Amino acid sequence: MATPNSASDYTLVDSHESVLDLIKVIQPLPTDIPCLFLDLEGVNLCRHGTISLITLFIAPHSRACIIDVNKLQAATFTTAAEDGTTLKTILKSPTITKIFFDVRNDSDALHHHFGVRLAGIEDVQLMEVATRFPNQRHQVKGLAKSIELFAPISDDEKMKWKAIKKKGKKMFVPAKGGSFEVFNERPLSKAVAKYCINDVRFLPQLRNYLSALLVDPVWRECVAQEAANRVAESQSPEYEPHGSDKIMAPKEWRNLN
Predict the structure, then answer these.
(1) Residues 138-145: contacts with CB within 8 Å, 24+ apart?
(2) Which tens digit of pLDDT belongs to each residue from 129-160?
(3) Model's pTM, two decimal places?
(4) Which one is the CATH code of 11-251: 3.40.630.30, 3.40.50.12780, 3.90.1150.10, 3.30.420.10?
């Protein structure tokens, strides 16, 4: 189990039985509030690489789960409860909200490796752009900058979050002497687990803070539509997972009031 202030405790999902246990936790969750916050890690995470781990934070239970896709492979998504529910059907459901921060490469990898067409997506990165003043919507912000500027948490929590993020990058960024293969090393190290959980544990607070600023229903619809556009784009043959234009905000947003 994990608490919102913990970056070390989690449930490892790496067997048929633990996938079924996770589905049982998700099934009774309310669908009228956002409950599922996700992030993926892998070796060159996109259609050209692999998926190693899915980190899932279940907000109503303050519960963090790390799903070992590297071990389970297709069984991650096809293991079915008695009523036929799988993680794949949950991810594809338009009525079950899933929250990501920049869904594009996660969606690309899920679709091309396991045939998962995401639906019911909120993208917190887009929410942040939409809350800005006109003429300030040119580039998107990363998760670290968004946490630093907007997450309604203490300065001490932000410092700890940043330290875990920095340590994690040294483990897997090649330019910093690391390797993405750390996500495939088993048993999963505590440092890697901390890094994964760190990326989702404050996402509910960040999402709720930005959502409260999106009072204009027109902008709410813009954010929802653009999240769907990102998913569709990520599944297209033309999508460039590491394209330089990914830092740009939606073009049609840049001068809207």
Answers:
(1) 138/248, 138/249, 138/254, 139/247, 139/248, 139/249, 140/102, 140/246, 140/247, 140/248, 140/249, 143/101, 143/102, 143/199
(2) 999 988 899 999 999 999 999 999 999 999 99
(3) 0.94
(4) 3.30.420.10
